[in-house]
Amino acid sequence: MLTAYLTSFAFVVLAETGDKTQLLAMAFATRYRWSTVLWAVFAATLVNHLLAVVVGASLTRVIPMDWVRLAAAFSFVAFGIWEMHHDRLNGEDRRSGRSPFWTVAIAFFIAEMGDKTQLATVALAAQYGQILPVWAGSTCGMVVADGIGIVVGVVLHKHIPDRAIQWCAALLFAGFGLWGIHQVFPAIPWVSWTLLAAIPVLVLIFYAVSRRDRPTPKK
Asked: Residue 49 falls within a domain, yes or no?
């Protein structure tokens, strides 16, 4: 249980760093009290990630565990590629309503649907088959990551390059994904060599995605 909790916590913190929902939390923190934003993020994440872990845990009842672990490993590699995508807000930070809490909670819940942190939670629940530890770990990870974004993110964002953060997170995701594939096929030598050869290929893919999604400077 502790392993599932700590892994879920670490993965979600990584996935949320520089993510669209973290940007959303930072934007709302410039309009509302930081405590209101943080509590709203916590409430939205509780509901959103409960749905994610229930879906993920149920997969192991109908699909062999090795298949689930392999799919989860490939998904982590995909998260690494996704991490290099330049996230932008699409108007979510301009939603309004009578209650700041419900404004933030509803907007955050919608923004998190289908986001990589939610999909990472589904994959982790499928891999470990434990609802409560993964739910608690992923929720705490979101609160910590978005709390950092709310409290010090605006200041740090001016001094730490976005691309440096994205590259570190992407490489860690890819590393965990490749290691997960290796664990499914530990006795097959050619798999290990193939995974090693995949590292420079992934780096090139990361670079290509990074270049493609880089914002065009305004003239």
From this structure: yes
- Output 149 or 157, whichever has higher pLDDT: 149
For residue 183, give the nearest of 74, 58, 61 by alpha carbon.
74
Which residues form the domain of 24? 2-212
The count of domains in the chain is: 1
* Mean pLDDT along residues 125-149: 89
Burial (0-12, 13-18, 19+ Cβ within 10 Å), 39: middle
> Is 160 within a domain?
yes
217 occurs within a structural domain: no
Burial call 103-115: b when 16+ CB within 10 Å, e when fewer: bbbbbbbebbeeb
In whole angstroms, give the CA distance from residue 72 to residue 35: 34
Alpha carbons 132 and 162: distance in angstroms, whole number: 33
